[in-house]
TrEMBL record:
One of its GO terms (biological process) is sarcomere organization. It is found in: Cytoplasm. This is Myomesin 1a (skelemin). GO terms for cellular component: M band; myosin filament. SUPFAM superfamilies: Fibronectin type III, Immunoglobulin. It comes from the Eukaryota. SMART domains: FN3, IG, IGc2.
Length: 1233
C-alpha cells in the first residue's frame, strides 16, 4: 500500500504535467486499455529510435578533426613534356590530404629553391593546386622532376620528365639536300638491334647484333656513339674498336637521356651507322622501378621531427658482394652492392686495382668518384692478373675498402662459336628452299646467318638480314630453276664462327610428295577365271607424273576376309587391269596404289566384293577412263574409252548423261555419237556438274559408267585459246601459249582428240611456253578439230575447229590469194617536220615491181608536183615521199597514196583535222621563223599569206625564253640574245607589269606570263613564256625506251637521286624480279631497267614507282612487241666516226661511219646544219647498207666546221656528229704572209 506522502507527491507531479501540456485548455483524463500487439509495436519504435540516436553519435564522433586526417594523395599528377630551347614550361598537379600537405619540388633528386633562383623558377600553391614554372629552358633543364607532398600521416611523390630540344640553325628558307655518300665497296653492312641494358646513374651496357655481311674482309671491331636527347652532336665512346658485340659506356650525366648507335669497321673502311637505340635515362634503378610502379600505398606511420639528424656526419661503410661480371682483353666490369651504413646522404665510390704480386693499390678514378655500383676499367695490360676493391665516400669522408676480388687475368673469356654442323637443303616452293643444319657445340646464346650462291657464280648472298635462332630457316625470294648451294655461320657476342660446309646443290622447284590414293575401283568385265578392274587416277599427283599402279586382292567368304595379296609386280600405266587365274564363283575385293617419283601412295578404299563368274548380259559394259578437257565458263569437252566388255555385238555408239548439283540425270544428245569425245555446251558459269556415259550395241544400251565430277564450269584466269595465224608468205599455223609450264611439261597436239600419226601434214615448233603447229601443205584433208594439251599441269588445254564452211581454213586459203592481190606496206603513211618548217609525208612499200605507180590524192582530188608539192618514189628502198614547204589552214583534210602494180593495189591515208593539225601548223611556222632567224632575216609583215623578208640588223633573241629547275630547287628564267649594244634596253615583264631588279626569288605565287623585250634605235624583239601551275614538271621524266646491242633499256631521269628513294619496277602491275636477263639500277640521275634479248613475254605495260618517304610519282610505258622491235630496229650510227679530226691543208680526208637499222636507213651528210650534196669536192657513198663514207678532196680552211652523219628510217633518226679542223703548216703560213 502506498503511503499518504507518496500519493501526495504523485498528485503534485500530475498537476504540474497537466499544466505544462494543457496550455490553458481543459484537460480530460482518459483511460485506455492497451492490447498485446500495440505493446509490441511501441517496443519496436523505441528500439528504432535508439538506433538513430547511436548513428548520430557516431557521425558526431567522425566530425572530430582528429578523425579526418589522411596521408597526401595526388589526384592529378604532373605530366612530362618536350619543349624547344628558349621556351618556358609549367608543371601542374593537384594534391589531397589532411592536414594540408607541405610540397617541395626536386630536380634529379636535388631540392629546387625557387626564392633563390626567382629568374629561373616560379612556384605557386592555391587550393591544393601546385605548379612549377621553368623559364627560358636550356639543355641543362633536361631532367627528371619530382614533387613531394608531406604531412603527419605520410609522404607521397610524383615524377615528370622534361626534355629540351635545340633548334637547327635555319640558313635559308630552302635547304639544299645533298646526295648521301655512296657506301664504299667492301665495307661491312651496318650492325643491327642496338639495345641498352643495366642502366644506372652514370653507366649503361650497350649490346648489338653483328651484321649479316662482313664485306671484303673480316670485321675488326665496332665503334659506339652516344648522343644526348635533344642534341644533334654524336660523341664516340671508344677510341679503339671493340671486338665483342657488348660494351659498357661510362661517364653519363645523371638525369639526362641518351641514345646510342654502332658502326662496324674492317680493312675496307667503316660501315654506315646502325639504327639508334631506344632512349635510356641515366638514373638509379630503384628510382626507375618506383617510377614504373606508380604511387605507393599510403604510409600509416608517424613522422617525428627532431632538431638534428643523428646520421649526419656518418662515414659510409664498405661495399659488399664485389665481383667481376665481365672480363675481356678490352675492359673489365666490376659490380657491387652499396654499404649498409651510409646515412640519409647519397654515397659515391672509388675503385682501386692492384697488380698480382705487388702490394701497391692504385686508385683508378682519382678525378671523380662514380655514382653507380658498377664500373668498367679500360687500358689494362693483356695477360696480366689484377685484384680489385672499392671504397664508399660521402661528405663525411672515405670509408673502408671492400673485400678484394680474386685474381682476374685480362683476356677474352667469351669463346667464338664452332662452325655449324652438316647442312641440308630441301625443296619447298618455286621461290623458296628449306635449310636445316646441325647446331654449334659448347656455346650458348647462338644465332645463325644463312647465305646462298648460284652454282658457278661464286657470289654469296645473305638470306636473312637478322640472325635467327634454331636450326631451320626458309630462304625466300629465290629464282625458279636456279641451282643453289647454301652455307651457315654462327654468331654470338664474341663474333662469328667459320662457315659450315656447303650443302649439296638444290634446284629451286616445288617439292614433290607421294600421290593421293586412287578412287572408285569398279568392275568392267568378268568371265569364269578373270575379271577386268578399273579405277580413277589420284586427285593429287604430288607434283610429279604418275608412273603407274599396283593392285592388291583378297578373298571374301561371308564376313571373313583374307589378307591382301599383290597382283602385279610391275607397275601398270593404264587405269584398267585384267586380273587372271581367279576361281569361279569366288568373291574378291580389290585395292589400288599409285606410284610417282616420291614413292607409293596409300591403298585406295577397297572395292565391293565382286563374284568371279561369266557375264551373260547382251548389252555392253560401262565406258571407262572418263576425264574432261578445255573447261570453260559455258562449255567443256568430255573424253572416255570404250568398254572392255562389248556384249553380244560391237559397240555402235554412246550416250552422255549430265546432272547439275541437286538436280536429276538427263541425256545431253538425242542421237548417240560414235566418237569417244563430246563437247558439252550451254553450261552455267560457276555451277557444278556430274557426267556419265552409256555404251550401246544392237541389243541395247548398257549400264552407266562410273560418275565423273563434280566439275565446275569456269574459265580459269590466264586461260589462252589456240590462234590461227597467216603470215605474209601465206604460211598457215596454229599457236598455243601456256604460262603455267612445270618441270617436264610438254605440248601434246592431237586431231579429233587422237594422237597425230601423219607427221607430214604438220610441223610442230615449241619454244619455251609457246608451241606452233604449221601446216606444210594446207588442203581439205586438214579439216577437223585440233587440240593441244600441256602435260603435268592442272588441265591446261584448248582446241580449234577447221571447217569447210567459211571461217577458219577457207578464210586462211582466201588470205593466201588475197596476199597476191594486195600491195603490202611496211609502214603506213606518216608525217614529220623538217628544217625550214618543211612538211614531209612518207610511207614504205614492202613488196612491189618496177611497174608500180603512185597516185597522190588530197580530199579526193589528185595533186601533182609543182610549187606547193614535191613528190618522190625511191624504188630502191620502197619509200614514197611528198613534201610541202609549209602547212596552212586550208591543208586540213585527208592525204592519200594510191598504188597500182599490175592486178595488185594498195592504199594508205593520213587525216589531218582538229587540234593536232593546228599544233603541227604552229610548229611548222615556228621552224620556218627559226630558219629565217638563222639566215639573218626578219619577218616584217605577214598579210594574206605573203611574207616580206629584210636583213636583221637590230637586237634579237637567239634562243627564246625558257625555264630551268636546278638540283638546289632554284628556278632560272633564261634566254639567249644576239647583236646587242651597251645601250640596248632589256626589260622583264610579268603579267604586263615590269619587274624591278632585286625582286624576291620565284615561288608558287609568281606563276604567270613572263616577257623579255629588247629595244634600241635599230629595232626591238621580244619573247614570251607562260609559267603557270599547269606548266610544272614532275621530279622525274617520262619513261623512255632505247635499244642497245644486247636488248632494250627503259629509263627515266630524276632531279637528284638519293639512297632514301624507294624504286620499284613493275610489269603488268607485278613487281619485276632481278635476274641475269632482267636487271635494274641507277647511273647518276638516271634510273634504268635493262632487258636482254627481249621476247614476246616482255611486251605489256611497264611502270616505275618512285617514293621518297612522303610523296611518290609513277611513270608508265606501254611496251608492245612491235614497240620493242621498233626500238631495236631504229636507225643509228654505231661507230667509226671520231669526235674531232685535225688535218693539214691540201690533204684529202676520208671518213667511214658504221650504220645500222632495219629497214636499211636513209643516209645524208651535213655541214654546219646544212645538207651536203655530192660534187667534185665531196664524194658521198653508202655501201652494203652498213657503211657510209665521205671523202673531201684537197681540204682548205673553209672545210673546217661541224659535220654530221644523219641516218633515218621508219623507226627513228640519229646523227653522228664530229668536228673537222684544217690547219696551215708554219712554213706555208710564212710564205702566205
Amino acid at each position: 500500500m502506498e503511503t499518504q506522502e507518496e500519493l501526495k507527491e504523485e498528485g503534485v507531479g500530475y498537476v504540474v504535467m497537466r499544466n505544462l501540456f494543457s496550455r490553458d485548455t481543459d484537460y480530460q483524463l482518459r483511460v485506455e486499455k492497451k492490447t498485446h500487439s500495440r505493446s509490441i509495436r511501441e517496443s519496436a519504435d523505441r528500439l528504432r529510435l535508439g538506433k538513430k540516436i547511436q548513428e548520430k553519435q557516431e557521425f558526431q564522433k567522425k566530425m572530430n578533426p582528429d578523425s579526418l586526417t589522411h596521408p597526401p594523395e595526388f589526384t592529378v599528377k604532373p605530366r612530362g613534356q618536350t619543349v624547344w630551347e628558349g621556351k618556358s614550361v609549367t608543371l601542374h598537379c593537384t594534391v589531397a590530404g589532411w592536414p594540408k600537405p607541405r610540397v617541395a619540388w626536386y630536380k634529379n633528386n636535388v631540392l629546387i629553391d625557387a626564392k633563390a633562383h626567382s629568374k629561373k623558377y616560379t612556384t605557386e600553391s592555391n587550393y591544393n593546386i601546385h605548379s612549377l614554372e621553368i623559364k627560358k629552358c636550356d639543355f641543362s633543364d633536361t631532367a627528371e622532376y619530382r614533387i613531394s607532398a608531406l604531412n603527419v600521416k605520410g609522404e607521397s611523390s610524383a615524377f615528370a620528365s622534361i626534355i629540351v630540344k635545340s633548334r637547327l640553325p635555319m640558313f635559308a628558307e630552302c635547304m639544299y639536300v645533298s646526295d648521301a655518300d655512296v657506301e664504299a665497296e667492301g665495307v661491312p653492312v651496318a650492325p643491327l638491334d642496338v639495345r641498352c641494358h643495366d642502366a644506372n646513374k652514370d653507366y649503361v651496357v650497350v649490346t648489338w647484333t653483328q651484321p649479316a655481311v662482313e664485306g671484303s674482309s673480316s670485321i675488326l671491331g665496332y665503334f659506339i656513339d652516344r648522343c644526348e636527347v635533344g642534341m644533334q652532336h654524336w660523341v664516340q665512346c671508344n677510341d679503339t674498336p671493340v671486338k665483342y658485340a657488348r660494351f659498357p659506356v661510362t661517364g653519363l650525366i645523371e638525369g639526362r637521356s641518351y641514345i646510342f648507335r654502332v658502326r662496324a669497321i674492317n680493312k675496307a673502311g667503316v660501315s654506315h651507322s646502325s639504327r639508334v637505340s631506344d632512349t635510356v635515362v641515366a638514373m638509379d634503378p630503384s628510382d626507375r622501378a618506383r617510377l614504373r610502379a606508380g604511387p605507393s600505398a599510403p604510409w600509416t606511420g608517424m613522422i617525428k621531427f627532431t632538431e638534428e639528424d643523428p646520421t649526419v656526419g656518418v662515414v659510409p661503410g664498405a661495399p659488399t658482394d664485389l665481383a667481376v661480371t665481365e672480363a675481356t682483353k678490352s675492359y673489365v666490369v666490376l659490380s657491387w652492392k652499396p654499404p649498409v651504413q651510409r646515412g640519409h646522404e647519397g654515397v659515391m665510390y672509388y675503385v682501386e686495382k692492384c697488380l698480382v704480386g705487388t702490394e701497391t693499390w692504385q686508385r683508378v678514378n682519382t678525378g671523380m668518384p662514380v655514382k653507380s655500383p658498377r664500373f668498367a676499367l679500360f687500358d689494362l695490360a693483356e695477360g696480366k692478373s689484377y685484384n680489385f676493391r672499392v671504397r664508399s665516400c660521402n661528405s663525411a669522408g672515405v670509408g673502408e675498402p671492400s673485400e678484394e676480388t680474386e685474381a682476374t687475368t685480362v683476356g677474352d673469356k667469351l669463346d667464338l662459336p664452332s662452325a655449324p654442323g652438316s647442312i641440308v637443303a630441301i625443296r619447298n616452293t618455286s621461290t623458296s628452299v628449306v635449310v636445316t643444319w646441325g647446331v654449334s657445340k659448347e656455346v650458348r646464346n647462338l644465332r645463325y646467318y644463312i647465305e646462298v650462291s648460284v652454282v658457278g657464280s661464286n657470289a654469296w648472298v645473305p638470306c636473312n638480314n637478322k640472325p635467327v635462332k634454331g636450326s631451320r630457316f626458309v630462304c625466300h625470294g629465290l629464282n625458279t630453276d636456279d641451282n643453289c648451294v647454301f652455307r651457315v655461320k654462327a654468331v654470338n657476342a664474341a663474333g662469328y664462327s667459320t662457315y659450315s660446309t656447303e650443302s649439296e646443290a638444290c634446284v629451286v622447284k616445288p617439292s614433290i610428295e607421294v600421290p593421293s590414293p586412287p578412287s572408285a575401283v569398279t568392275l568392267l568385265e568378268r568371265v569364269r577365271d578373270y575379271m577386268v578392274v578399273g579405277w580413277k587416277a589420284p586427285a593429287k599427283t604430288g607434283g610429279a607424273d604418275i608412273r603407274g599402279y599396283y593392285l592388291d586382292y583378297r578373298i571374301v567368304k561371308g564376313n571373313v576376309k583374307s589378307k591382301w595379296h599383290e597382283i602385279n609386280l610391275k607397275a601398270v600405266t593404264d587405269t584398267t587391269y585384267k586380273v587372271e587365274n581367279l576361281k569361279e564363283n569366288t568373291f574378291y575385293e580389290f585395292q589400288v596404289r599409285a606410284v610417282n617419283q616420291a614413292g607409293i601412295s596409300k591403298g585406295s578404299v577397297p572395292s565391293a566384293a565382286f563374284e568371279c563368274k561369266e557375264w551373260t548380259v547382251a548389252v555392253p559394259g560401262p565406258a571407262r577412263g572418263l576425264h574432261v578437257l578445255e573447261v570453260r565458263k559455258d562449255s567443256m569437252v568430255l573424253l572416255w574409252e570404250p568398254p572392255t566388255f562389248n556384249g553380244r555385238s560391237p559397240v555402235t555408239g554412246y550416250y552422255v548423261d549430265i546432272k547439275e548439283e541437286k538436280g536429276r540425270w538427263r541425256s545431253i544428245q538425242e542421237r548417240s555419237t560414235k566418237n569417244t569425245y563430246l563437247k558439252i555446251c550451254g553450261l552455267k558459269e560457276g555451277v557444278s556438274y556430274q557426267l556419265r556415259v552409256h555404251a550401246k550395241n544392237i541389243v541395247g544400251v548398257g549400264g552407266p559408267s562410273q560418275t565423273l565430277g563434280p566439275v565446275v564450269a569456269q574459265t580459269r584466269p590466264g586461260t589462252n585459246e589456240i590462234v590461227v595465224d597467216v603470215d605474209d608468205n601465206g604460211v598457215i599455223s596454229m599457236i598455243f601459249e601456256c604460262s603455267e609450264m612445270a618441270e617436264g611439261s610438254q605440248f601434246v597436239w592431237s586431231k579429233n582428240y587422237k594422237a597425230l600419226t601423219d607427221t607430214s601434214r604438220l610441223t610442230i615448233e615449241t619454244v619455251g611456253g609457246k608451241s606452233r603447229a604449221i601446216f606444210n601443205d594446207p588442203s581439205l584433208v586438214d579439216l577437223g578439230t585440233y587440240s593441244c594439251v600441256v602435260s603435268n599441269t592442272d588441265g591446261v588445254s584448248a582446241s580449234y575447229t577447221l571447217t569447210e564452211e567459211g571461217k577458219p581454213l577457207s578464210l586462211a586459203l582466201c588470205l593466201i590469194d588475197l596476199c597476191l592481190t594486195v600491195i603490202p606496206f611496211t609502214s603506213e603513211m606518216a608525217i614529220e617536220l623538217q628544217e625550214k618548217g618543211r612538211v614531209r609525208f612518207w610511207t614504205q612499200v614492202a613488196k612491189f615491181t618496177a611497174n608500180c605507180q603512185v597516185e597522190y590524192v588530197f580530199n579526193d582530188n589528185i595533186i601533182t608536183q609543182g610549187k606547193k608539192y614535191t613528190m618522190n618514189f625511191d624504188k630502191s628502198t620502197g619509200i614514197i615521199e611528198m613534201f610541202m614547204d609549209s602547212l596552212e589552214v586550208t591543208d586540213e583534210g585527208t592525204f592519200t597514196f594510191n598504188l597500182v602494180d599490175g592486178k595488185a593495189t594498195g592504199r594508205t591515208s593520213l587525216v589531218l583535222i582538229g587540234a593536232g593539225t593546228v599544233k603541227i601548223q604552229k610548229k611548222s611556222e615556228f621552224e620556218r621563223a627559226e630558219w629565217v632567224r638563222k639566215q639573218g632575216m626578219q619577218i616584217l609583215n605577214k598579210l594574206n599569206f605573203k611574207t616580206i623578208l629584210t636583213p636583221l640588223n637590230g637586237p634579237h633573241f637567239v634562243e627564246y625564253l625558257s625555264f630551268e629547275v636546278t638540283p638546289e630547287c632554284d628556278v632560272y628564267l633564261k634566254c639567249k640574245v644576239g647583236n646587242i649594244r651597251p645601250g640596248t634596253e632589256r626589260v622583264w615583264i610579268k603579267d604586263g607589269i615590269e619587274i624591278e631588279e632585286g625582286d624576291e626569288d620565284l615561288s608558287k605565287k609568281d606563276a604567270g606570263v613572263y616577257e623579255v623585250e629588247l629595244r634600241d634605235e635599230r629595232g626591238k624583239d621580244k619573247t614570251l613564256l607562260n609559267l603557270t601551275d599547269a606548266g610544272k614538271t614532275n621530279s622525274s621524266s617520262e619513261l623512255k625506251v632505247e635499244s642497245t646491242e644486247h636488248g632494250i633499256i627503259l629509263y627515266t631521269n630524276v632531279v637528284y637521286y638519293t639512297e632514301e628513294l624507294r624504286v620499284n619496277w613493275l610489269q603488268k602491275d607485278s613487281k619485276i624480279s632481278h635476274s641475269d636477263r632482267v636487271q635494274c639500277g641507277v647511273t647518276g640521275e638516271q634510273l634504268w631497267l635493262k632487258i636482254k634479248e627481249p621476247t614476246e613475254k616482255d611486251k605489256g605495260k611497264y611502270a616505275i614507282d618512285i617514293f621518297d618517304g612522303s610523296a611518290g610519282v609513277k611513270r608508265v610505258l606501254e611496251l608492245t612487241g612491235q614497240a620493242a622491235i621498233a626500238e631495236r630496229n631504229r636507225a643509228r650510227v654505231v661507230g667509226g666516226l671520231p669526235d674531232v679530226v685535225t688535218i693539214q691543208e691540201g690533204k684529202s680526208l676520208n671518213l667511214t661511219g658504221n650504220v645500222w637499222g632495219d629497214p636499211v636507213p636513209e643516209v645524208s651528210w651535213t655541214k654546219n646544219d646544212k645538207e651536203l650534196l655530192p660534187d667534185e669536192h665531196y664524194t658521198l657513198k653508202f655501201e652494203h647498207g652498213k657503211f657510209a663514207s665521205i671523202t673531201i678532196a684537197a681540204v682548205t680552211t673553209t672545210d673546217s666546221g661541224k659535220y654530221a652523219l644523219v641516218v633515218k628510217n621508219k623507226y627513228g633518226k640519229e646523227a653522228g656528229k664530229f668536228t673537222v679542223s684544217v690547219y696551215i703548216p708554219e712554213d706555208e703560213a710564212e710564205k702566205k704572209d
